[in-house]
Structure formats: structure tokens, C-alpha cells
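Weekly sync notes, structure subgroup
Attendees: PM, AL, DS (notes)

Item 1: joint prediction request from the bench team. They want all two components modeled as one assembly rather than separately. Inputs as received:
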Amino acid sequence: EAQVTQNPRYLITVTGKKLTVTCSQNMNHEYMSWYRQDPGLGLRQIYYSMNVEVTDKGDVPEGYKVSRKEKRNFPLILESPSPNQTSLYFCASSLLFPDTQYFGPGTRLTVL
Amino acid sequence: KNEVEQSPQNLTAQEGEFITINCSYSVGISALHWLQQHPGGGIVSLFMLSSGKKKHGRLIATINIQEKHSSLHITASHPRDSAVYICGITGNQFYFGTGTSLTVIP
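Output from the run, pasted for the record:
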């Protein structure tokens, strides 16, 4: 089944404890992206990757890192999480850019 | 700054009604996207369009590039259409509106 998977789906952590949210797609898509969704602010793009080894900042990249070493995976790294990074995170992919986006199921992160 | 504005923010309709959700944007775009987010949180892409009109079942999306405006129409609405509808634009990256929460009452 064609899909975008994210893990974990739910995570509660404490300030400063490094974490990684994984994202993987099995559709051979070139473009991948991370978004956060907050009430009243909607979806905001954190980082995106046009293809392997090429990543760029979105609207809200501060406090996040990404890597795209292989086409299928695009992990989101929070080196030192803070409470203002408590949010719902979505990974998405598309064959090219711009193109129809396929979204992962979301990761609900709480930073205490 | 909000590159994308949606209206209305909330909408309640009776089953069977014709529904329109509007999206205005302020920058040049390569494409406009309509997404649907159900109460469980999952997001599905409904349309991507750069001109004219697209139809899928009871859903119709239109765009007017000159006026920087798009509309999403739902004909013969049904309670299962209850969801948040999100408009997004792509220039060199994605920008999204804050969504329109639709409730269709039986």
C-alpha cells in the first residue's frame, strides 16, 4: 500500500532531551516536507527537500534539523526541544514539486 | 503576515445544502491546493489546480489567477463531509490558510 509513515505517533518528553521523528514513504517520491500544525496558526512548513541531499528551510525552521540521505526517509530532529515545540507534526511527500501531497498520519508531540 | 486567507472560519449547514468555502492569497503562485482534515486528524489532498476548475464527485474547485481567489464547492452536502478544509499555495514553498471547519447536520 502506498503510504507515508511517521513514528512515533505520540510522544511526551522533557525540555532538552533530543528526539527524532521518523518519516518514510514507499512511493519513490522526490519531494518531502515537514509541517507543524497549531490552533489558530494552521499548517506551517518547517523544512522541505526537493530531492536526495537537498534540503531547505521553510517558514519556521528554528529549533529543528532534517536530513535526506536516501529518497524514502526524511527524519525530523529536535536537538533540544522546548515547550513551544509542542505541536502536531505532519510529514508529507509528492512525486515532484509542486504536486499532490500525501500526508503521514501525524505525530503529536508534547514537551514538558 | 498571512499569505492565505480563508472564509468563513466556521460553517454549519443542513444536509443537502450547497456549500462554498473561499480562499484568497496575496502572492504569485505555481499551484493552489485544497486539503481535507477529518476529526481524527488525518489530512487528505483533494485538489491541486493552477487554472480553471476541477471536479471530483460532489466537490468542485475553481481558481481565478487574476483575482488571486479560489473556491471549494460541495454539492448535496452530507454529514460525512464534516471536516476542516484547508487551502494552501505553492510558490517556492507551501503556505496554508488556517482552515474552515464545516459541520453538516442531518
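Discussion: The mean pLDDT of chain B is 95.
Action: AL to compare against the crosslinking data before next sync.
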